[in-house]
Write a structure and sequence with these properties.
By secondary structure, this protein is of the alpha+beta class. The chain is built from 15 helices and 31 strands. The chain binds adenosine-5'-triphosphate (ATP) and magnesium ion (MG).
Length: 601
């Protein structure tokens, strides 16, 4: 491709809309343009990158025996009602774009495709002889993200590879899941990325086990906790740990103390001169279930620890049926406005005890009349602890479960693990922290969708039972940007060779020089014929401008038809390290071919 013929506009300044390096660089280098919130145009250079990534994904998927197809993006609401996810996706997560057609039928733009594929399986799979099967597609997804940001990292329209497998039993699913683990590792390795696979929360997709593939980068939205020996790695949303031991309490008698202005743990501990590990903190949450029922939840946890909202959400989902619901639409710490909706009197916030009286909850039809009391494992073994006195400005010290306070029946793990904690499986290993960008997620779904939607098959014994399912996603467009986030310098992008839009850029320093032009044209033809994807910068620009642009767009190798042509040579510059060498013109093609093959091995 000739740059003179391309719609090629680079920007000197970073656009104000961009916060992280990869987003700035993709905008500046003319790979993407923003059209609206979370909506981007993939310009020709970007589209080439996306096609290369898709091709790597395709090859690795096909190698496992999965088959490519294309599912509809317009999805009838009925399918989502059948699976029970319409409310979750339109209200709780609120992430699905919905619309009505002119006949007033409700439809959604696909954020994911479990419902569609399960319908296909239900209609087409009859017998165990047809199993296992695995279908995948590479397609645009739509999600009305609350906070679209960082360009392609969190778009509202983005490209995903999603695959769905169907099995006769868990064993068969396990095998495909392992194959996918390998395929995903291959994809990321081939794309030239540093990554880590981690245990993950399954979220609204559901099912049992799941793992995420994280590209390691400072700007990552996810926190990963891992052990140095590599035996444990998990998303912080899912991570378990052994917190440091609690310090022995300095209080031996139960008493109420005046503790003015100590509504935070920090202030309380400095006032009482105690450790936060001797405090039972009581955090109030408000959950709204899908049947409209509001439940007030009181979580007692050790003072130095925070509640992991994802773990709490999962616990409360498990308890749904107690409150007549199936799923949770909202879970939050209620602010003053929310409290007004159900509190009969003002709450002793910052001074709450585990036995906060139920009469703080005004009687109302859609509000559960009692606090749901949970105690986190970290608080169960505390002795002579400090906690609130249910009265503003007062705490109690020297308290014990089974004496002054009844230990809640529901003992749970809702503790947020953090760096410095010990690993559960091997307490000598200390958890470390890293930031990651989630580019892939593989799930063992089990029978969640097949059961809900009646997708069954007949087994060897002639019994009709639900299909066992797995699903596997790669964010193709997010992956492309993650690659930039992991590989750039002050001059611009440094594409891994395997996914660079072009391998080589030939820069003609002075297009007024006929010999420079002639050699550049000759090399341009030769390289393209040899299958080396080559850009020719034949623009009428100053050499400096061309060199800057070449660095900015990040093409792995730059050929300059400069002074050395007099000796029958051209200069070749490697983008990654700016290493420069002069190579004889007739050796260029074979040399580059070898370098490229080496780099994408
Ligand atoms: P996240 O937690 O980042 O929102 P998710 O758990 O919702 O991701 P999945 O539903 O598992 O994501 O989707 C599979 C993959 O699609 C993700 O691993 C990610 O790479 C990509 N992806 C998800 N949401 C977006 C988005 N809004 N923009 C770009 N890529 C996305
Ligand atoms: Mg999401």
């Amino acid at each position: 491709m000739r740059l003179s013929q391309m719609l090629f506009v680079t920007l000197r300044e970073s656009p104000a809309e961009a916060e992280i390096p990869s987003h700035k660089l993709l905008l500046r280098a003319g790979y993407i343009r923003r059209i609206g919130s979370g909506i981007y145009t993939y310009l020709p250079l970007m589209w080439r990158v996306l096609k290369k990534i898709s091709q790597i994904v395709r090859e690795e998927m096909d190698a496992t025996g999965a088959q490519e197809c294309l599912l509809p993006q317009l999805q009838p609401a009925d399918l989502w009602r059948e699976s029970g996810r319409w409310d979750t996706y339109t209200q709780a997560e609120g992430i699905m774009f919905t619309l009505k057609d002119r006949q007033e039928r409700e439809l959604a733009l696909g954020p994911t495709h479990e419902e569609v594929i399960t319908t296909i399986a239900k209609e087409m799979i009859r017998s165990y002889r047809q199993l296992p099967v695995h279908l995948y597609q590479i397609q645009t997804k739509f999600r009305d993200e609350i906070r679209p940001r960082f360009g392609l990292m969190r778009g509202r329209e983005f490209i995903m590879k999603d695959g769905y497998s169907f099995h006769a039993n868990q064993e068969s699913l396990q095998k495909t899941y392992q194959d996918m683990y390998q395929a995903y590792s291959n994809i990321l390795r081939r794309c030239g990325l540093k990554f880590r696979a981690v245990d993950a929360d399954s979220g609204a997709i559901g099912g049992s086990g799941s793992q995420e593939f994280m590209v390691l980068a400072e700007a990552g939205e996810d926190e990963v906790l891992y052990t140095e020996d590599g035996s444990y790695a998990a998303n912080v949303e899912k991570a378990v740990s052994l917190p440091p031991d609690a310090e022995p309490s300095p209080f031996s008698n139960f008493e109420k103390r005046e503790t003015p202005d100590t509504e935070t743990i920090e202030k309380l501990c400095s006032f009482l001169k105690c450790s936060p590990t001797q405090v039972v903190k009581n955090v109030l949450y408000q959950a709204v279930y899908d049947n409209g029922m509001t439940v007030l939840v009181l979580v007692s946890i050790r003072g130095d620890r925070d509640v992991n909202d994802v773990k709490l959400f999962n616990e409360l989902t498990r308890l749904s049926s107690q409150f007549g619901g199936k799923t949770i639409l909202a879970l939050k710490v209620p602010d003053a406005e929310e409290q007004q909706k159900w509190a009969s009197k003002s709450l002793p916030l910052g001074y709450i005890a585990p036995d906060l009286e139920d009469d703080y909850i005004a009687s109302a039809k859609q509000v559960h009349p009692k606090f749901l009391r949970l105690v986190d494992k970290t608080a169960v073994d505390l002795k002579n602890f400090v906690t609130g006195a249910n009265e503003s400005g007062y705490h109690v010290v020297g308290a014990n479960w089974g004496k002054e306070f009844k230990l809640p029946e529901l003992v749970v793990d809702v503790c947020k693990a953090k760096a410095g904690d010990r690993a559960v499986h091997e307490p000598s290993q200390i958890l470390q922290t890293a930031r990651g960008i989630e580019v892939g997620h593989i799930f063992q779904l089990g029978t969640k969708y097949s059961q809900a939607m009646g997708a069954t098959y007949t087994n060897e014994q002639g019994e009709e039972i639900p299909l066992v399912m797995g699903c596997y996603g790669v964010g193709v467009s997010r992956l492309a940007q993650a690659a930039v986030e992991q590989s750039y310098d002050k001059d611009g992008i440094i594409w891994p060779v395997a996914i660079a839009p072009y391998h080589v850029i030939i820069t003609i320093p002075n297009i007024g020089d006929a010999q420079q032009v002639e050699i550049a044209e000759k090399l341009y033809n030769e390289l393209n014929q040899a299958g080396i994807e080559t850009l020719l910068d034949d623009r009428d620009e100053r050499a400096g401008v061309k060199f800057k642009d070449a660095d900015l767009i990040g093409i792995p190798y730059r050929i300059v038809t400069g002074r050395s042509i007099k000796q029958g040579k051209v200069e070749v510059v490697e983008r990654a390290n700016h290493n420069t060498q002069e190579i004889a013109i007739e050796e260029i093609s074979s040399t580059l071919k070898q370098w490229i093959a080496e780099a994408i091995k």
